[in-house]
Structure formats: structure tokens, C-alpha cells
Amino acid sequence: MNALYETYDNCSHLVGKEQDDGTLLLPVAHSTQNAQVEVVVDLHGNFIRAEEVPKSDAITIIPVTEDSGTRSSGIAPHPLCDKLIYIAGDYAMYSNKANAEVCYKQYITQLEKWCNSEQSHYKVTAIFQYLKRGCLINDLLSQGIISLSPNGLLDDHKKVQNIAASDLFVRFRIEDFNLYDEGAIWKDRDVYDSYIDYILSSQEGLDLCYVSGKEIPCSYKHPAKVRHAADKAKLISANDEYGFTYRGRFAKKEQALSVGYLTSQKAHNVLRWLIERQGYTRYGISLVVWDKNDKAIPNILDSTQGISNKMMRITSETDIGYSYANAFNKTIDSYKGLLDTEATIHIISVDAATTGRLSINYYREIKSSDFYERLKYWHETCIWEHEYWKKDGSKATYIGAPSIESIVLASFGTEQNGKLNVKDELKKATIERLLPCILDKRDIPKDIIRSAIQNASRPMAFSTGNWKRVLNTTCALIKKDRKYNVEDWNMALDDKERDRSYLYGRLLAVANRVEYLTYEKDEKRQTNAKRYMQQFRNRPFTTWATIEDNLQPYFNKLKSNSQKIKYEKILNEIYDLFDKEEFKKDDPLDGMYLLGFHCQSSVFYNKNNVAMNDDENEEGNDNE
Amino acid sequence: MKENSIEFKVYGKYALFSDPVTRVGGEKFTYQIPTYQALKGVCESIYWKPTIQWFIDKVRIIKPIQTQSQGVRPINFTGGNTLSIYTYLKDVEYQVKAHFEWNENRPDLVNDRNENKHHNIAKRMLERGGRRDIYLGTRECQAYVEPCEFSSGKGHYDNIDELSFGLMLHGITYADEAVTEAEKGHMTIRLWTPVMKKGIIEFIRPEDCTIRRIVGDMKMKHFGEGNFIGLDEFTEEGDLIGMDECTL
């Protein structure tokens, strides 16, 4: 809370200004509404004209009172711009709504108070002058914006921007030849300030603010709409007068907590703005990483590629591998350059279990130097080769860390309609558990790795593309896991490695390759190696015997003799590396076998690609 | 009066020292570090009599601070249930140094002010894991106490010079232990800004907290006929059989 509150003060120059990306940091005691009608008056309160507001320009900053800001039902007029029922004095004549007169009365007395206060503003007074006459509906009728139905009431069938006539929201503009600005009072900082000063001076009674520690006017009603405009959940709520959330020790909610009005408004407005601008909002959670001085910060959940791309926009698409590491480092350094090392980075994540209450489910503060060091560490250790599709449709690879979301999908995903899916709850919980792995260099929880290995061992359960994604991500996890045990596995094939699982993985890759080479052009079936993969993992020795038996026909089917010799040679090389006893043991393989499999496979694959398809070359040689 | 202190470690799987900002709504979110009041409660669970009053001197954070959120299903008092998300501290361990002083608000117990007696009982009870169940912050966060030497062993924050935690709750001064005239007969909230140095937070005394808020009237708990035998057990000198008969 305190950090949010300070952020507002540091960003005060942005208040009320729409940013390039369309987000907006609201001033204290203000809210936004979509307006449908704009009424133009001059400084003496004479009606000039009214016009419809196009939808693209409808968002209007309006001042609100404590009550109107949180109103749901009941009468609580906004101080300035509001719906017709509140602001039009002649509304009752054209409608049979019972409380129309009360609404107007409350509204106009409230506005009068503001206009008569020391903090009043001449533009607001002009509007008050006009509305006091109570002829708004008449004027709108004469402008043809709304019309009457035969019974003399407002015709709701005629819609303005899809809103029924009786429900229109009105904003004001002042046009006068004595006025040199554009007169849009919802954009006028002087009007904001006038209202803020007014509302602060009209507050009575001091109490201790639990956030700032000062004796200031306090509020017991806090704003909602934190995550998005339709969000009812409140970060601070105390509606439970019957339960025992605070009752017991405390008799009233005022005893249990008091938070300053300004503090609360500032903190909420900032959080709303941050979430909208740089938050990660999915499945109900909203995660924001920010710095009090509002410096740009990379998205911690993103992959190496994602982070680098955002900043650098890598142009040469030919890059493979390490240039991404460079780009990433450059990106991080450029972010880092914006911050001094002592700055604090805040991470907050909010979620709601019910519609009414918002809860914080993660909060951390980290020194920015630590933050970048750890982020870098993550992107240097949790890495593997990933494939992606370039814009022109061709395949490319890069080496880097997968995004958090792809880790979740790899470990818990199941395929539905060709897409990997994870239940929202599980996804949220897993993301929360993975955050400390990045932010505190914690180990990745074993169950996530185990589950990913399990998934990667079931190629039959996924489409090829998805399975490859799962496999690559899992390899990154295994590598990260192993690196911790000071085994620095290269992405390249290590042909001296004697780890049992690794070697078995390589064997499987060879079997896979040999069978694949015999495919006809459009053959789509899975190889034996892939079909047996899961069983192979559990009982490598016995399963390998089966796979090897099945492999013989394919060896004979290979297009050339040299190919046959080549792959048999590789197999023998691998056999030689095995410890005899180790080979015969039928214990399940650990994750290392995936690394072996992937490394060996990519050796085949890359040779194919890079050296202009050496298989065909061999074939050519044979023909000669 | 000598400093009658005890030193112990308290550890548990979870802890929840709810921030009052989130407490009123029911979506509890924990502070990063224990409050003074929570540790005082732990001491009182180890051993307490109305004669004495525990003061927490300092706490040392041993394990890294990490949180975990959990979906919970609190029961509505009016029936049914609701859903919430609580955020707990996970896998916590603290070393605590505390001492007791006489509660000056209980002049009726002045004859019970026997330092050695209370100190020895407290130490014995600590060895046995406390008289009542120990918990960290909220009742579902069960914990255990063991005697230990303060600042023994390694802590995760030993090398971190200074870490501050912003404004947080220090505790609540109940009428029983109120010191100033204004606060007697009331309940008072105390706030402060703790700073951790090399893993250790030195608490200020409750009466030294400058940010305070009196929130309501409250009577002192009455100890006497009906719920407390007081010193009457010692009036019949040497009569041990009489002691056995009493229901305490």
C-alpha cells in the first residue's frame, strides 16, 4: 500500500493525462465514465449546443464523491457530470420515474455547495448557472438528440450510442469568446484541483492512517474496479457486519482499520493504472512489476526471446542461438541503465476468490540490482534450444529461457483441439510457485520437473509441434535443475558423456532417426521409438531390446549402404560408452535421457539442414 | 528486579501475521515478519499468570521469507460459506528473546511477585514445549517452541545490513496492561516501523510506540472469585492437601 501511495506522488506529473498507450492515471477523487452527450454552454451558463459523443472519445474523467464513487443502487449523485436523471431539472416532466426530483435536488444542492465554497471554479459555476434553470431536457429535445414518444415521455427506443435516452450520461464543455482553451472541463487540471481541494477541505474528523501513519481524514469506503473497469472486487472491504472477520475484538469496522482518504485514493488509482498499463492479467490474476519512479521494467514471465524482441526488435532474422543471448544482455543492460542500483522493484499479484473481494496473493520488494542479476541468472541457466516460426513461415531456433506460461503448459498441459491446456487454478498456483525460482534463484519444484518429464515422454499424447515444445521446455528445466548440481550441460551433443540415461536417450534418438529415414513422402505415422518412449523410460533395457528388434527391417530398408553403416557405427559408439552393468539395469531413466535424445536428434536434424542434406549427398555418392 | 529472560526458537510450517489493511475484508495477507503481539502471544502460551507481563526484546529471522497463497473456505457466521485467498508465510523459524516484568495494573497480586518462582516455571514450561498450544499469528498455523541460545546457528539474513518493512502493526495494548491514564479502560492500537539488522529486529517497548490509536472502551479482565484462586492457596501454611483439592 505504502509503495503504491509513494508511486502516485512520484508520478504526479502524469496524473490525468492520457498516455500513448491509452492508459490513464486518474486524479484523486476522480473516476471515469463513458459519456454519450456533450453539452456546450458559455461562461454565463447560456446553452449553446449539444452533440453526441463518438464512442472513441467517450471516456470522460469525472469527479466523484466517496458515496457516488462506490454507488450501486440508491441515490448518490456525482458532483459534476452525471446521468440525465440527476442533472436535468425538467427530467420529472418527461419521465415517470418516482425519484427523479429527489435526484435532481440532491445533485443541485451538492453542486451549489461546491460553487459556493472557496475552492469553486468559474467554469463549474457556469455549468451550475445553466443547470439551475432546469431546462436541459428541453434543450436536448430542441437539438434533436433525444425525442419524445407519443405519451409525452422520453422515447427510450431512440438510442444514443446504444444507450436509452433516459439513461444518457452527460459531460460539459465551455465555449466562450473570453476563454482561450478548448473548454473541455473533463480534461482541465484546474478543475480537478479545485474539486480535490474542495473535497479535502470539506472532510471532517482526523484519524490515524494505517498506511502513512499520519492523522488525516480517513475513509471507510474504498474503490473497486482495480483489475478492470467491470471489476467489483475491492482490495479493502469491510462489509461483513455479521461475520467475524473483524468483529470480536473490534465492534465496528472503523475500529478495525482506518486508512486515509487520500492514501487510499492514490494507492488504488496507481494500482489500477499499473495493472492496465504493464500488468499481466489472465485467469483473474493480475501481476504487476513496477518501480516507484515509474521506470520501464521487463516482463519477468516472458521468455528470453520475448524480452529481447520487445526492446530490440531483432531485424536480422537469420540469427540462430547466441545472438539472442547478446540481445538479451543488451536489453537487460538498457533497462538497468534506467534505474539506480539502490532502487526497489515491487512485484504484486492480486486475485479474487469471490466477486466482491480482491486479495493480494503475492508481494515482493527487491533491490533493482538484485532483480536484474537474478533475472539474468534465470535466462542464463534455464535455457534450451527453442523452435519458432518466423514471419515468412520458415522454422528457426534460438537458445533461451522459455516463458513461465510455457513451463506451466509443458508440465501440466493436456492437448485439447490441438492446443495445450491447463486448468486456470493450477496455472495460477504454478505461476505463483515459479516466481520465487526467478526472483530468489530457488530451485524449480521437483514435481513440476517430474511432471514435465512425464509429459515429454508421451509423444503420442500430443501433436508433433506441441510435443516438441514440451520437449524443449522440459530440457530447459532439466538443464536448470542439473546446473544447480554443478553439471554444466551443453546444448550441443556431448559424445563423451557416460551418464546412463543420457546414453539411452541417444540410442532412442538413433532408432527414431533410422525409422524416420525410411518414410515415404507423405507418411505420417509415429516411429516405434516414439511409441515406446514412455515404456522405454520405465524399463529401458527390456524395451530397448524390443525397439532394436523392430529396427532391423528399417535398417535394411535404408536407401543406401553407407547410411546403414553410419547409423550402426553411431549405435556402436554409444554402446561402447555404456558401463556394462549400468546398461543391463532395468531401472527407470531420469530426465537426462531427454537431453540425450534431444541433443542426438538435433545433430541429425542440423546436419540435414546446414550441410545441404548430407543424406542425399551420400545417396549421390552411391549412384556414382 | 533482574531481567528474567527466556530465549527460544519457534518454528512452524506456516505463519499468518495478517496486515490489518487486508484483515477487515477477510482476504488475509501476511506481514513479512512477526508482530510484537504475535510473539507475546507465543510467550503467554508458554507460561503466563496475571501477575506478570511479557516483553519481547528481539527476534531473529532464521529462514528466508517466502509466502504461499491458499484458497480457503471460511464459514459464514450466518450459515453457508464464502471463499477467500489467504497468503501465509511458509516454512518459518524465529529465535526470540523475551523477559517478564510485573504487571503494575494488578496491585492485588503484589504478594505473588516472586521472580524466581515465575522465571523457573517459565523455563520449565519452555522445555516442555509450552503450557498451551503455540501458533504463529493465527490459530491454524501451529508451531513449536524449543529452548535455544539467541543468535546461535546460521540465519538467512545474517549478512544483510539493513532491511526495513514500512509501517506495520506493533500490537494492541489492552486495558489490562495500559500504562498511561488516557489508555486505561481502553484498547489501543500501536504501529511502528521495524528495521531488520543482520537478521535481527529489536523491538521497542509498547509504551514507546509513538503512533497509537485508541479504538474503544475495554474493561480489565477480572480475576478473583469464580475464576482465580489467587494467593489464597498459600494462606493455610504448609497445607499441601488443601492445594490438591483446589480446582486449578
Summarize the structure.
With 624 residues, chain A is of the alpha+beta class. In chain A, a hairpin with a 5-residue loop joins strand 15 and strand 16 (395-400).
Describe it for me?
- The complex is a heterodimer of chains A (624) and B (248).
- Chain A is an alpha+beta fold and 624 residues long.
- Helix content of chain A is 45%, strand content 14%.
- The longest helix of chain A has 21 residues.
- Chain A starts with a helix and ends with a helix.
- Chain B has 248 residues and is of the alpha+beta class.
- Chain B has a domain of 159 residues: 2-Layer Sandwich (Alpha-Beta Plaits), CATH 3.30.70.
- In chain B, a hairpin with a 2-residue loop joins strand 10 and strand 11.
- Chain B is globular and about 55 Å long.
- The chains are: A alpha+beta (624), B alpha+beta (248).
- Chain B: Keywords: Antiviral defense, Endonuclease, Hydrolase, Nuclease, RNA-binding.
Helix content of chain B: 10-25%
Strand content of chain A: 5-15%
* Regions with little confidence, pLDDT below 50 for 5+ residues of chain B: 239-248
Poorly predicted runs of 5 or more residues of chain A: 311-322, 610-624
Percentage of β-strand residues of chain B: 25-35%
> How many helical stretches of chain B?
4
Radius of gyration of chain A: 33 Å
Protein name (chain B): pre-crRNA processing endonuclease
EC number (chain B): 3.1.-.-
GO molecular function (chain B): endonuclease activity; hydrolase activity; RNA binding
InterPro entries (chain B): CRISPR-assoc_prot_Cas5, CRISPR-assoc_prot_Cas5_N, CRISPR-assoc_prot_Cas5d
Which terms summarize this structure?
heterodimer; A: alpha+beta; four-stranded antiparallel beta sheet; three-stranded mixed beta sheet; elongated; B: 248 residues; alpha+beta; Alpha-Beta Plaits; nine-stranded antiparallel beta sheet; three-stranded antiparallel beta sheet; disordered C terminus
